[in-house]
């Protein structure tokens, strides 16, 4: 049966080995909260589709895609009118099943890696703040409406890039390379694709989310599984309350404006006309 070495000079290598074993165990762990988040995004899409179908049957005609206004997409005029909660709810909406599939896969692989490396509280704080940062950046820099969790996905990517660089001397070399040089080309290609003429990708949201994630990565717990600072738990609870308030405002919006086409037109008026003219 093996145990710690008797030679004191070998203690350092033994400690490094024990820490790497602990890290490997964490990288093999399940990611339940990532799957809860993905399930929530899928659930919102299913409920939205069912709601749209029910409203269409009730009205006897097809419902415009602008029903997303009711469900909380980022729309600058409405945000400036006081509906700040759209900066959060827009992260849980997606422009079709393909958009949802891409973001869900990214959340599973990239978000799952973040959850394994740093734990559920930093993972949650990164998601909410990156989604919020991406939405705020989109609001400030683009006029087009927007939905999707890609701001949070890029927040995770920015966090992993910085995390791999900061801890490059303590992480296993292969993992450090994958977190930096392995992810960097993927980030650059995605941002470059968003600059292609005619492609409707909100690079402002991507960059905003990535900057927030990169900055928060400087405060993330170290790779060796030491105790996570209580700050992350306090921030996580505070952001959870903020999300619940946003969800409450969204539910009120659905009840107030989503009962019929007349209600949609009454609530959004000129905003709805501008959206349909731009499609």
Question: Can you put this structure into words, describing what you see?
Answer:
- The chain is mostly helical and 279 residues long.
- 69% of the residues lie in helices and 0% in strands.
- It has 13 helices and no strands.
- It has helices spanning 11-27, 32-59, 76-80, 86-89, 97-118, 120-141, 150-166, 173-179, 184-193, 203-217, 230-257, 261-268, 270-278.
- The radius of gyration is 22 Å and the shape is elongated.
- The termini are far apart.
- Residues 7-12 have low confidence and may be disordered.
What would you say about this model in short?
The chain has 279 residues and is mainly α. It is built from 13 helices and no strands.
Determine the fraction of residues in helical runs and give it as a percent range.
55-70%
* Distance between the first and last residues' Cα: 69 Å
- Tell how many strands the DSSP assignment holds: 0
Mean pLDDT: 84
Order of helical and strand elements: HHHHHHHHHHHHH
Structural class, by secondary structure, is: mainly alpha
Write the layout of secondary structure elements.
Elements: H1 11-27, H2 32-59, H3 76-80, H4 86-89, H5 97-118, H6 120-141, H7 150-166, H8 173-179, H9 184-193, H10 203-217, H11 230-257, H12 261-268, H13 270-278
Give keywords.
279 residues
